[in-house]
Amino acid sequence: MAQSAQGPIGGRAGQQVVKLPEYPDFLPTVHVPIITEDQRELLRTIHELPIMLAVSILEGRVTSSFHPEINTPENAWYTAMTMKLYAGKDLVRMLTHSIPRDYICAMVMGTIGWRIHPERANTPEALQVSPYNSNGPGTYIATMSITHRHGKGLFGNEYKMLADKVALYLKAYDASLIPDNQRTKDMEDALRWAYHVDFYYAAKMVKRGKTAFINAFDAYEKVSSLEKRFRELYTSTTHLDPDAHLVQGMSYVGCATRDIDDISSAHLQDHKFQGSNYTWWLTMSCIRDIGLWPSVHIVHAIRTWEPEQLPISEVLVTMLARSMVEEFGFNVASPGGITDSLASSPRDWDGDLYDVMHYRTYLPDQLDESSRGLDELSNKIITVERESKRLTNLWIDTAIRATKPRKPLPTLAELEELAKAIKQRGEIVDAIGQVDKDLQTCVDFFSLLQEVLKEALRGNYLHILDALLPPTQGRCHFRREEENTEDESAEYESDDEDDSKGVAFADYDSSTSNSQS
Length: 517
Known about the structure:
By secondary structure, the protein is mainly alpha-helical. The protein is built from 17 helices and five strands. It has two domains: about 5-160 and about 215-360, no CATH class; about 375-500, no CATH class. The chain starts with 9 loop residues before the first strand and ends in a 51-residue tail after the last helix. Keywords: Coiled coil.
């Protein structure tokens, strides 16, 4: 349905070909080593189906956040984020359709910073810094690469060095809590090193015996998560190629109430730490201490055109890019703040809408695509259900004919009745033959049904379609009554769990979707 979502097979930086995860499996590669099963499912959906179904996958994560294994105190950030997304699900659907498919895929893979690098110009994988017509309010993504590496970041062994330096910084913070006269030589060495590192981007906040980037326990926990992410990147590349420079980068997601270019510039490598985004600036400092120079890339992820869209746009991009420090990024605070002041500020919001709707037609085009795609899928499912019901009734009819009680054979004295009985037996044989044909028709249809569903859904998406399609007549229960001398009735109903009868009946219950494009 959406071939553009497949993404490039590979790019070239210098003389080295970059391998990106490819459809349909989207398996990790040496340059993009971390792809979760949730990400693969989302990428396949974006490639095969309307974007509306990708939104449904994100909404479905709200339910999973209440699972006992996930809904724990240490995962409270995830539950809070998914609840914000669900509360603004109508806005989420609209905003997701306003993002070009290629940008969504690049956000999910973590390759968006590499794809906007000038080195990619005039190549199939190239993306623009902004897919929108003009600057304005919205959400952005900041990523890091290494200078003179054509948009690439650290390689595997360098991530190990980076993790070791973050671990040493944590030890320096621990040492800062110890009275001066009780510190060991290792503690003093760690504090001196941290003092040196803080000078790169936090010179105004440097204090001997203190750490500029960690000043509270919650910050300590976030930096500990950052160290784990760096070690995961190192481990994931060890068995592939520890010397390969990754094009997959960790992200920071932020939002701007007035001007994306102005606000996002605070993350650039020529700026300084101002007391926030400490995981970002600590990473920049440690990269400098390795002997490398970081380079920052900013991408306009969503351009908003209504005041209330801004908080939910930040939540949406944070989930797509997995930018929380507990997942694969630098964000430490829950996204989606309150922007009441934005709504009261004078602004030409109609101009912002015109910019998104007319100058760049991703939103209307993709809304139309979702509408047509869902109609096609709806018609296929309704047709399957109708044919399933018809064939099930046919099976019941043939089963009744085959098992219908027969009249007793005539005696020798009743020759005329015997002739009729012989004729009747021939009719029964013909009926049984017809039963075999009808049963074969059922088998052939259900084989075809399986192929149709595979073609239409390409995975376990039936539960998603249940939430989107128009209501039907309910579950298919079939009953046929036979009158006998005692006025008893035989009941036949479909039962997927009755394996002893050797026949599976389609039992499909579609529910009304409250999702409208």
